[in-house]
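Give me the fold.
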Amino acid sequence: MAVEEFKPDPYIATAMNCMLWIFYGLPMVHPDSILVVTINSIGLAMELIYLSIFFLYAPNKGRAKVIGWLALEILFLGVVAACTLTLSKTHAQRSDLVGILCVIFGVLMYASPLTVM
């Protein structure tokens, strides 16, 4: 679903990327990364504003898609957080695991505008 010619895919992907980077910057994962948390918190706030505007003008089917994807992202982030904090014992292991996920989702974020083609 789209509003005019805009699809929510890039905004949803960027929100997920920002959430993962915020988790990466937390002291329990990667100590002394307050700038990563600050910058990505601002990015997440901007994406949530964009998604709110999209949500406001989207038809019901588009709204359901946005809510579904955001719920799935939050669930995924919860699983990543639980697995990372329980299975990885050192900061280095946690940083590596979450960092790899951040890079993967960063690539997906930059590829997401291609969904309009």
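The chain has a mean pLDDT of 92.
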